[in-house]
């Protein structure tokens, strides 16, 4: 797939690198440093290049949105017309100091995003893991027991694409249902962050869901 990365920081930089190494064509965009984007291009060792948000969006089969909530409008404006695009978003609706969600309970960042760009198909994914585990999960992706990753969205075709990308990183995709379920996955992320960053084990934390049957 052609994947445009909108926001090449901790999440976008790592996921884009992993997808390039998994064989996808990746365009890294949106950083304050052009040198950082060039470094990501070189480090990805695959079909990756640095570009602008509009270059990342052009011809992309899927876009990863990975910016702070306060940068969403800016990056979308720079990306241009996104009609018909699939947007996989890991961006969480966090306040300026990343201590709390600014949208919760009756809506979610993912739903607000879908309203901002109504002609796109939004899938919420990857928000529920700390960036620190991504390379480890990718490196051990052939193990029988994979960590889970919950995703949600309203469009079946876009969800199929997201599930493939989730598998490529090394997770077992768990379909959480429609996009409104992001109201529950986004607060869940705060639990994961609490366990990962405040817990004794350090930030390397992934989770696994098991369904118990009689
Ligand atoms: N980090 C995690 O573990 C984690 C986990 C789950 C969800 N999330 C969510 O994922 C999203 C991205 O998080 P992150 O940790 O990847 O953030 P990050 O490392 O800060 O990356 C954000 C990217 O946006 C770029 N950016 C910010 N302001 C800009 C500006 N004015 N002009 C151009 N580029 C600009 C940054 O540029 P620079 O390269 O110059 O910094 C960086 O490349 C957030 O919504 C976060 O809540 C993060």
| Rounded mean pLDDT score | 96
Classification by helices and strands: alpha/beta
Shape: globular
Number of helices: 8
Instruction: State the major sheet.
Output: 8 strands, mixed
Description:
It is a single chain. This protein has 8 helices and 8 strands, in the order E-H-E-H-E-H-E-H-E-H-E-H-E-H-E-H. The longest helix is centred in the C-terminal third of the chain and has 17 residues, at 182-198. The protein has helices at 10-21, 34-44, 53-57, 72-79, 109-116, 134-139, 156-169, 182-198; strands at 2-6, 25-29, 47-50, 62-65, 86-89, 121-124, 148-153, 172-175. Helix 1 packs parallel to helix 2. It is globular. By secondary structure, it is an alpha/beta fold. Strands 3-2-1-4-5-6-7-8 form an 8-stranded mixed beta sheet, with helices on both faces. The N and C termini lie far apart (40 Å). 38% of the residues lie in helices and 17% in strands. Bound molecules: NADP nicotinamide-adenine-dinucleotide phosphate. NADP nicotinamide-adenine-dinucleotide phosphate binds next to helix 1.
Report a brief summary of the structure:
This protein is α/β, with parallel strands linked by helices. Helices cover 38% and strands 17% of the residues. Strands 3-2-1-4-5-6-7-8 form an 8-stranded mixed sheet, with helices on both faces.
């Amino acid at each position: 797939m052609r994947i445009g990365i909108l926001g090449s920081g901790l999440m976008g930089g790592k996921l884009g690198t992993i997808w390039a190494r998994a064989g996808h064509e990746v365009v890294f965009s949106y950083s304050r440093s052009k040198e950082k984007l060039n470094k990501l291009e070189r480090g990805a060792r695959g079909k990756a290049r640095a570009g602008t948000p509009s270059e990342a969006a052009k011809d992309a089969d899927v876009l990863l949105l990975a910016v702070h909530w306060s940068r969403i409008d800016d990056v979308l404006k720079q990306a241009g017309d996104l009609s018909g695009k699939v947007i996989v978003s890991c961006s969480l609706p966090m306040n300026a100091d990343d201590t709390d969600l600014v949208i919760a309970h009756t809506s979610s960042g993912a739903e607000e995003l879908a309203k901002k760009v109504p002609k796109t198909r939004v899938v919420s994914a990857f928000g529920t893991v700390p960036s620190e585990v991504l390379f480890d999960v990718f490196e051990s992706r052939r193990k029988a027991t994979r960590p889970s990753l919950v995703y949600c969205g309203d469009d079946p075709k876009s969800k199929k694409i997201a599930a493939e990308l989730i598998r490529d990183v090394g997770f077992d995709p768990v379909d959480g249902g429609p996009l409104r379920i992001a109201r529950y996955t986004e607060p869940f992320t705060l639990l994961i962050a609490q366990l990962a960053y405040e817990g004794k084990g350090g930030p390397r934390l992934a989770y696994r869901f098991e369904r118990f049957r009689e």
